[in-house]
Amino acid sequence: xxxxxxxxEKKGAVTLITLNRPEALNALNSQILADMVDAFAAFDADDxxxxxxxxxxxxxxxxxxxxxxxxxxSFAQMYGGNFFGGYExxxxxxxxxxxxxxxxxxxxxxxxxxMADFILAGDKAKFGQPEIKLAVTPGMGGSQRxxxxxxxxxxxxxxxxxxxxxxxxxxxxxxxxxVIPAADLVDEAMKTAEQIAGMAPLAALACKEMVNAxxxxxxxxxxxxxxxxxxxxxxxxxxxxxxxxxxxxxxxNWTGK
Length: 257
Ligand code: HXC
Prior knowledge:
This protein is about 45% helix and about 15% strand.
């Protein structure tokens, strides 16, 4: 493991990335950002890897941006240095990845989880955007992604009061895909990732791209984009294989072509 603040393990076609700054509840400092950016780029570039899981510890996915690192920064340093702008490179990951959230996902931690293609939550997970208590606001997409995920009323209340949302409410509100007993969360996330890794790779890339387009386009453009990608998959060998396999009542063998 070449990283200081994360652990990266390849398990078959799934990369497991574990945030590992237990002394600070995985608070996100510049080192953990640099390590994650590098790990996600390596995952995306590695043909043997098809899906990733990002997780933290049972106590904390991540308790936010590192307050101790941020506290003395000036406007010039934050704005001039594009503080945490590097996270955009994680959201540029083209292959699917899942956030498996146990414990606290607060501030930047909640925002990081929301960068995933979807979140699986342990039953003790707690989500929140408490930045207002520090006299700042979300700064890594929280005001936008949380609002899109759970709607204005709950997002506004959470951002203005800093209250935390438990796993069940998060699932009911559409923030997380499923709630799983905390002790089983990572195993279940790995199983889900293996399932995705077993799909035809081009279809998985296209699926991710078109669902994400729903947040960037109007309905007609989004539907058109979807249809073009759908049509495009008929140029792939895997589409022929997938449909032949269905007719022949067997599993498909994907080439990624
Ligand atoms: C730095 C942090 C930290 C953080 C926890 N720690 N969160 N250090 N940055 N965000 C450190 C604590 O200082 C402490 O270190 C150790 O982790 C354990 O935390 P405790 O507070 O002792 O644990 P506990 O009492 O169980 O409380 C857990 C907690 C609390 C409720 C999660 O730690 C907490 O409120 N943390 C801050 C959450 C927050 O405000 N996040 C938003 C940050 S702003 P020591 O050395 O004392 O043992 C943000 C902006 C995003 O995220 C935008 C960026 C562009």
